[in-house]
Design brief:
single chain, about 300 residues, alpha+beta, four-stranded antiparallel β-sheet, 8 strands, about 10% strand, elongated
Length: about 300
């Protein structure tokens, strides 16, 4: 006999199965078992998160804010205010899973998230420059990370269902299985929820980040050099490794300057941290990340 729950487990472990297809099968399980929280979450992932709705924390993408220059194309934005650099270097995304999959399969190394016109006007005014277009340039591995988080969440849920004796033979669940599911109170925990804002991101409900503060930033050099020497052994995809090296070299250049821009260093570091978190299971990455608290304050 075919078990619907075991099918979900197999699909979750098979990278050839699209996450969108996996979610549709998981939706059947959630609806038949009347697990409302999972059904709502799956529908949001399949159809997109509605405006004003809370977002799971894993849907925050980190990247680099760039301004469009008619002569030179997209250019990185240099911030004088470290809070503005932090807030505008990440964005919560409402895209459907199918849209994320299309981005991953599109062959581009980066995606762009446009900044709203009113925020772009504010940034231009703060920079004392004519209005222009701004966009957050995000490495494609951020899309991959979100898809993997969803896949792992479904797998964990399906494993819990099996452990509770809920299998769904022949695409149906017994009354006993439904009672067990109702009594088990399956819940989703994503270290959130958080709401989206292009001005106040990374404040309420977000996960912890590390920022370097005060005069100790010059001591960051050895850690940057250690990371640069280890990038090939971190298990990153080619595009992510190149992005990591670019951000680290930007930090090193700032550290070598007479007047380092602390806000810019922190903005670059947020991208470094996001890339490193994606490979935290790598032995080399884990060893290096153990030293992060020596240089950074937790915020």
């Amino acid at each position: 006999m075919s078990s619907l729950v075991l099918e979900v487990q197999r699909d979750a472990m098979d990278q050839k199965v699209r996450v969108s297809d996996l979610l549709r099968k998981a939706l059947v399980v959630a609806r038949k078992l009347r697990i409302a929280e999972f059904e709502t979450w799956i529908n949001h992932e399949l159809r997109g998160y509605p405006e004003g709705h809370d977002y799971p924390a894993y849907r925050r993408m980190h990247g680099q804010l760039k301004a469009y220059n008619l002569h030179y194309g997209w250019q990185p934005v240099m911030f004088r205010n470290p809070d503005a650099a932090r807030d505008l270097s990440s964005r919560l995304v409402s895209s459907t899973v199918a849209q994320l999959e299309a981005s991953v399969n599109g062959g581009e190394a980066y995606g762009m998230i446009p900044v709203d016109d009113d925020v772009a006007f504010q940034i231009s005014a703060d920079m004392d420059r004519p209005p222009t277009s701004f966009a957050l340039h995000v490495p494609i591995n951020e899309d991959v990370r979100i898809l993997d988080t969803i896949r792992n969440t479904v797998l964990d849920w399906a494993l819990r269902l099996e452990a509770d004796g809920i299998l769904g033979e022949n695409l149906s669940f017994t009354s006993e299985e439904k009672k067990t599911a109702e009594a088990s109170h399956y819940t989703l925990v994503f270290h959130g929820p958080v709401t989206n804002s292009q001005v106040q991101q990374g404040v309420e409900g977000s996960s912890q980040t590390m920022e370097i503060t005060g005069a100790d930033f010059r001591e960051l050099g050895p850690l940057v050099d250690r990371l640069l020497a280890s990038t090939s052994g971190l298990g990153l995809i080619k595009e992510s490794q190149q992005e990591l090296e670019a951000q680290l070299n930007s930090i090193r250049a700032q550290l070598a300057s007479k007047d380092p821009a602390l806000g810019f260093i922190n903005a670059c570091w947020r991208i470094v941290q996001g890339l490193m978190l994606n490979v935290a299971g790598n032995v080399v990455a884990a060893q290096i990340m153990q030293d992060f608290p020596k240089y950074f304050a937790i915020r």
